[in-house]
Design goal:
This protein is α+β, with helices and mostly antiparallel strands and about 475 residues long. It has a domain at about 225-345. It has helices at about 95-105, 110-120, 125-140, 180-190, 205-215, 225-245, 250-255, 260-265, 270-285, 285-300, 305-320, 330-335, 340-345, 355-370, 375-385, 420-425, 450-460, and strands spanning about 10-20, 20-30, 45-60, 60-75, 80-85, 90, 95, 150-155, 160-165, 170-175, 200, 220-225, 450. Strands 12-11-8-9-10-13 form a 6-stranded mixed sheet, with helices on both faces. Strands 1, 2, 3, 4 and 5 form a 5-stranded mixed sheet that branches. It has a two-stranded antiparallel ribbon with strand order 6-7. Helix 2 (about 110-120) crosses helix 3, helix 6 (about 225-245) packs antiparallel against helix 10 and helix 14 (about 355-370) runs parallel beside helix 17. The radius of gyration is 32 Å and the shape is elongated.
């Protein structure tokens, strides 16, 4: 059968009207029902028609609507009426099956608003299609349960969310709607092979600890080093702000500009930084003490054993003056309350070292994802093709069979001006499909989650 503008052999194109932004295609089914679907009788009579409009894939930059006079038939044997079957059309969506699939795929990379404009489908329908597509896709994508798990907090759409990661592979395994104990516990409970989890690195958020303790009792909880030492930096900043009250306006401005020097590690200071720091610490001894305490706290993490780390902490704590202690009160309280889990690091140095990259990623995702729901952003991060480190690019176009001296999609004889490669498949015979080998697909490639470095690269390249 010759190809037509729709490239749907199940339909005969009767008329095509082209407008500035749309194609209006009138068509009819090639095959009409010859028997009743209820009793299989062939004694059918016409019971009227009604015009229906089905949206189809955009073509040549224009939206496409297919107009079909759907016949209503009545069975003389059983008396029931029914509409003729409309193949490859999703009547519940009033569009072609291929458009439903295409919208689901494109919604991972484009906004619902832009897809509504491109296809003529209302935005609410696109949201529903995307939801169903993601539900279906998640049934086929399975991430390996990490042996070294990270549980962290990120802010997306103005709310804190829980992100679960595979520390060894530097990938995101899932993102949860919130960071509540019940949410995290339910997720961990449903995780396949959860007994394989050996270590869980987390920040000092009690619901995380309680959820892991309840569901993964054999896993070792390790408080992420970076969350602990960051508290010392925060204490240094509190001290700087607290001591500004003694300064003149000019001195306050200088201290504000030099705040990054005070937050730097001593080993990272250049000559100019050292000169500025020396001036501040000599003129304001309390500021110098706060800086020393910050540096000494970092030094605790240079210990080789939990016992040595505890001795260093106790010595550090004794060396805090009464004047400066209030600024470091949160650090002391956290170390006291979380001591066993903090000290676990010195036997099992597991850490979410990707945290800064993740935070940068989330900031970018929030910026480019304005107008998206959390579910849409989550799907884009976890399920977009190529993010799992096994990117499947569209294969390079290869001309099939003998050379065809026409440009794709244009210049074909008759009304064959449809969908590029699909039209060409009508022009030249396809190779026979490869025989299925049941043993070839037995081994499933392991998927460790959405690779963070790949996510950042794809966003930078405009691919996400």
């Amino acid at each position: 059968m010759p190809a037509n503008i729709l490239n749907l052999p199940q339909y005969r194109v009767i008329r095509v009207e082209e407008a500035d932004h749309d194609y209006h295609v009138t068509a009819e089914p090639v095959d009409v029902a010859s028997s009743c679907p209820h009793c299989q009788s062939g004694r059918l009579t016409s019971w009227g028609t009604r015009e229906q409009v089905f949206k189809d894939l955009p073509m040549h930059g224009k939206r496409v609507g297919i107009y079909i006079d759907t016949k209503r038939l009545r069975c003389q044997a059983c008396g029931k009426t029914f509409s003729q079957a409309l193949p490859v059309l999703a009547e519940n969506r009033m569009m072609t099956d291929r458009l439903v699939k295409w919208i689901g795929q494109q919604a991972l990379k484009h906004t619902f608003t832009s897809l509504a404009d491109e296809t003529g489908v209302v935005e609410g329908t696109i949201r529903n299609i995307f939801r169903d597509y993601i539900n279906e896709l998640e049934q086929t994508v399975r991430f390996e349960t990490p042996k070294w798990m990270g549980i962290d907090e990120i802010h997306i759409i103005n709310k804190p969310r829980c992100v679960v990661s595979n520390i060894q592979s530097n990938t995101i395994v899932d993102m949860l709607h919130n960071r509540n104990k019940d949410t995290v516990a339910k997720y961990l409970f449903k995780m396949p092979n959860r007994d394989k989890v050996q270590y869980v690195a987390m920040d000092m958020w009690t619901p995380y600890r309680d959820a892991v303790g309840a569901v993964l009792p054999d896993a070792t909880i390790v408080i992420d080093k970076f969350h602990v030492v960051r508290m010392a930096n925060d204490a240094m900043e509190k001290a700087r702000k607290g001591l500004r009250g003694e300064l003149t306006i000019k001195q306050k401005r200088g201290l504000m500009h030099d705040r990054f020097v005070l937050l730097k590690r001593e080993r990272d200071l250049n000559d100019e930084d050292r000169l500025n720091l020396d001036g501040w610490t000599k003129n304001y001894p309390a500021l110098g003490e706060a800086y020393r305490l910050k540096e000494d706290f970092h030094g605790i993490y240079e210990a080789g054993t939990p016992e040595e780390a505890m001795r260093r902490y106790e010595a550090w704590c004794r060396g805090i003056s009464t004047e400066i202690r209030p600024y470091f009160a949160d650090v002391i309280l956290a170390f006291t309350n979380w001591q066993p889990f903090i000290l676990n690091y010195f036997e099992h140095p597991v850490t979410n070292a990707y945290t800064e990259s993740l935070n940068r990623l989330i900031r970018v995702m929030n910026r480019i994802g304005r107008g998206y729901s959390f579910d849409a952003l989550r799907a884009r991060i976890l399920l977009t093709n190529g993010i799992h480190g096994n990117k499947q690019k569209r294969p390079r176009f290869e001309r099939h069979g003998e050379p065809v001296p026409v440009e794709m999609g244009y210049g074909l004889s008759g009304d064959a001006i449809g969908y590029g490669l699909s039209v060409m498949e009508k022009v030249r015979p396809m190779h026979a499909p490869e025989a299925y080998d049941p043993h070839k697909h037995e081994k499933r490639d392991k998927n460790y989650g959405a690779d963070i470095s790949t996510l950042i690269h794809m966003i930078g390249a405009g691919e996400l």
